[in-house]
Amino acid sequence: MQKLRMEEIAKTLSISIATVSRALHSPHLVNAKTRQRILQLIEESGYVYNATAGDLSRKKSNVIGILIPIAQHVAFGYTTLAILEKAQEEGFSTIIGNTKFDPEMERKLLQQFLERGVAGVILMGFSIGQEEPVVDLIKHGIPCVVIWETLDNPNISYVGFDNRAAARSVVEYLISLGHRRIGLIISLYSKLGRIKKRLEGYQEALEKQGILFDPSLVIEREPTLMEGKEAMSRLLALPNAPTAVFCASDYLAIGALAAVKERGLRVPEDISVAGFDDIEFAAYCNPPLTTIRSPSYVMGQMAVKFLSEIIKKKSHEIRRYQFNPDLIIRKSCAPPKGS
Questions:
Q1: C-alpha Rg value of the chain to the nearest Å
Q2: 334: which residues sit within 8 A by CB, 6+ positions away?
Q3: Can you tell me the distance from the alpha carbon of 285 to that of 46, in angstroms, rounded to the nearest whole number?
Q4: Domains of the chain
Q5: ∠ at Cα 144 (140, 147), nearest 5°?
Q6: pLDDT band at 50, cuts 50/70/90?
Q7: In whole angstroms, what is the distance from residue 242 CA to residue 18 CA?
Q8: What rounded mean pLDDT belongs to the chain?
Q9: 142-177 pLDDT tens trace
């Protein structure tokens, strides 16, 4: 079939050019049968829609910006996949920025999103002290949804969970097993608010049981396998090594398991290890990892749903949802040796 222009598609189907355009950039606004007829003719004719020109003509973008702190993290990968799938379902395109935990890069990417006039932004958290650029986007009419954490700021929408409470539940479980000297290997709490809350949850659990906080048992690292292994090696080399270690990321925890094995020790017989996120690998470790199950995929889908509703309704409504993540108990934790 000869390649058709948009106006020829409209004429062939006896509908307006505007209806054809809406079927492509805002399919939810077009009757399902009409939309199917349009899409079928487009497929048969080989017509290619110019989304950029469509955005300019409508003076409205159909692109969602996504901000990720570390692209290679599996848990964020699940969330990103959910966002991409749901965005496509809702008729949005996406662009992704990777901040690498750098506040300056974060500001630059948010500025680029603003300059490109994106329809909305989803942030997988943001750096400590960086609420202002997010609020600035919202003031410019670009709705934002923050995921992976809850926020006190009443002007920002979020889909997340209480990181402090989740971390506290892990440490309380370790204490219930009889551990009193508990190490913490944690991601960049000095940069990210949600990670700082995990540190606070650890401290609160110790304080509640009258256990003195020991800064030498806390090691801050980027959430990688290598960093987790190196951090655990440091803890095991202490004169009074911990009997259990909470790793505030499964990546760190899996690296920690490798360090324990390298020293000829066993988990959980010699030392207990717990993680955070419940990435797919956690259940297949040796031993399977006790961890917090974060709703990474569902958070991404819900964030797009919220953002889509705000954009399509042209509202300034603040949308919020808080999950209660579960502690998944597996075989990597046991009472301390000799108890």
A1: 24
A2: 177, 268, 269, 272
A3: 49
A4: 6-57 (1.10.260.40), 61-162+295-325 (3.40.50.2300), 163-294 (3.40.50.2300)
A5: 160
A6: low
A7: 67
A8: 89
A9: 999 999 999 999 999 999 999 999 999 999 999 999
